[in-house]
Amino acid sequence: xxxxxxxxxxxxxxxxxxxxxxxxxxxxxxxxxxxxxxxxxxxxxxxxxxxxxxxxxxxxxxxxxxxxxxxxxxxxxxxxxxxxxxxxxxxxxxxxxxxxxxxxxxxxxxxxxxxxxxxxxxxxxxxxxxxxxxxxxxxxxxxxxxxxxxxxxxxxxxxxxxxxxxxxxxxxxxxxxxxxxxxxxxxxxxxxxxxxxxxxxxxxxxxxxxxxxxxxxxxxxxxxxxxxxxxxxxxxxxxxxxxxxxxxxxxxxxxxxxxxxxxxxxxxxxxxxxxxxxxxxxxxxxxxxxxxxxxxxxxxxxxxxxxxxxxxxxxxxxxxxxxxxxxxxxxxxxxxxxxxxxxxxxxxxxxxxxxxxxxxxxxxxxxxxxxxxxxxxxxxxxxxxxxxxxxxxxxxxxxxxxxxxxxxxxxxxxxxxxxxxxxxxxxxxxxxxxxxxxxxxxxxxxxxxxxxxxxxxxxxxxxxxxxxxxxxxxxxxxxxxxxxxxxxxxxxxxx
Length: 495
Description:
Blueprint: H1 7-15, H2 21-39, E1 42-45, H3 47-62, E2 73-77, H4 104-111, E3 115-120, H5 154-161, E4 167-172, H6 178-184, E5 187-190, E6 210-215, H7 218-228, E7 258-262, H8 272-287, E8 291-295, H9 303-318, H10 336-347, H11 350-363, H12 368-389, E9 395-399, H13 414-418, H14 425-429, E10 434-442, E11 451-458, H15 464-478
Parallel strand pairs: 2-3, 2-4, 7-8, 7-9
Antiparallel strand pairs: 1-3, 4-6, 5-6, 5-10, 9-11, 10-11
Helix pairs in contact: 2-3, 7-15, 9-11, 9-12
């Protein structure tokens, strides 16, 4: 029997004992062995651990349990802890650190039957939009290996796109799930802030970081979210609010749905093919029965500037713990102060150092009110603008990225890289649920192969069920998500 392509199909087959989880673990270990040299999605492969989990899953199924993710191969972004595995954040400062506990979101997926096939590459400490800032490896876009997969969750997204995993976990601070999902032609979903526990996620910016799923289909993303969402007493930011199931609320049309198009998110600055792809996506939404309405986000243009004060300020505080004393890299000096300096100089990369310096300056005496406090006020205004816009619509549609995946080193200056998150940052600042769903392909002028793009959809706080329902209807009607890169063409290899 062939290996099914989706988490839903795999779980059904394992629960009905048509396939064993152990056979699926072996199949995906073989796939990773064949494809990983070309993709570079993983920093650590955990095939033996996946097989051990698979044997337990098979035993539970034989005992009569039905597991929502039975036998589903799962890739985990390497800023999430998994007991006994190397957890690096893509940084030299944690290159050899072994996690002593498991993140809550990861544990919930494992308890549901998922198989951990490896820890994936990322921009160092999740700071980047291309996955080029990793100190420990290079991940390539499965559609064109001369191009970036996007970031910071580039390894997780590339693993799913290349067929090395069926589900993956990423973290999204300013667009780090949605933008790479758009670049690699998969579904990337950031839930409402606080819906998924951050316990065991190594912090970058604590008021923004959110764990979310990467999947091949909206249905699989919903299934993954339903398993891991919910209150966690180990996370002070976790919301003690009931979570409505989403996998049974997926819809096939958009009749009666109002979708807002943001006046300030003009498409005129985008490349002609990119603009045309997004315009077709909006037309497809209307063709499914949606009523397209104009909405305004007057403060949207302040999103990037606001984010790059708040996020670095929080990273400056969070990364102070990496001092060479308690865990991770230590470069000894003549005294404690010199040990701190040498360790951090050797352990952190340029982008991490840049953001620490920006954040430390923004929090320093004499500048705190002028920068950090004003940025927080702007953040409040951005959230208020979204609340006003949602009085006119049920969801907002926008680009997930301003371009297709670009070539390595094409955006070497920080400013042009930061602008890659222009369309995704406002949703993060407001804490809203948002996702990217494949919406078509463009052939770039400097490339011979079509590359995917993603449509971003967002809804009000806690409206994940609505969001995933809209995305599912669009996905089913357009079928863009069914197209796979050539490297994944043999996904149905026999077990």
